[in-house]
Design a protein that fits this description.
Length: 79
């Protein structure tokens, strides 16, 4: 997996007030963390690879502890 970009905000709020949006495709994985009203972006990360499979997803999950935190809402889009 190759990380294409990562944007981080210096500001943060409690994870239970955040929305986690995940997008998974055949050759990409990305996620965004925003405020509950989607008015503020806290993190935006995008990866590409030859194949997004279970080991690749596990590696990303382990690499990003913010994915393990509780969120107000979680949206997942599979393409």
């Amino acid at each position: 997996m190759k990380q294409v970009y990562q944007i981080d905000s210096e500001r943060n709020i409690e994870s239970t007030q955040q929305i986690l949006s995940i997008r998974i495709g055949e050759r990409h994985f990305g996620f965004a963390i925003t405020s509950a009203d989607a008015g503020e972006l806290f993190k935006l990360t995008w990866y590409t690879g030859t194949e997004i499979d279970e080991p690749a997803l596990k590696e990303l999950y382990d690499k990003h502890p913010e994915l393990k935190q509780p969120h107000r809402h979680v949206f997942i889009k599979f393409l």
